[in-house]
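Researcher: Go.
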Amino acid sequence: MALFGTRTSLAQNTASTGVSINATVIQGLTLIVSGGPLSLGTIVAGTTPAAIDPQKSSVLFTVTGNGGSAVKVSYSNVTMNGPSGATLTFTPNVYGSSSATGQGSSTGVTSGTTVNLSGTTGSEGDYYLWLGGSLGTVSTGQTTGAYNGTFTMTVSY
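Model: Structure:
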C-alpha cells in the first residue's frame, strides 16, 4: 500500500528598510554666581529705598554652555522673611550681555526671555547677567528687624 501525501508549500515574503540615527551632543549648562550677597542696606519704615541698578551691581551670574545656543532665563520675585512672620517683597531687575565687560551697555532681561550664548556651535559660550532690583515702598507699620530671602535664577536650553 502506497501512501501519497501532499505537501503544501507556503510562500515567504520579507521586506526591510533602515533609517539613519543621528544625535548631537552639546555642553551642559552651568550657572555660577559671584559678588553676593545683594545688600539692600538699612531701610527706614515708611520710605521707598533706592533701587539697586543692575548696571552697577556687584552680583553677577555667568551662564556657560554650548556656544551660539539660545538659553531661556527664568526667575521670580523674592519673599524676604523677617521677625514674627513679617515679609518684604524684593522685585528683581536683571540686565545681561554676551560680554563679561558689557555691564555698562547691558540690556534688560525679563524672566522667560531667551538669550544667546557667545561663541559658535561646538565651542564654549557665555552670557553674563547682573542682578539689581527694589523693595518698593516699605510701609510705616513694617515690623522692624532683619529680613532675608534667596533669589534663584534658572537657565535652560
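Model: The beta strands are 30-34, 60-66, 70-74, 78-81, 87-97, 107-108, 114-116, 124-134, 154-156.
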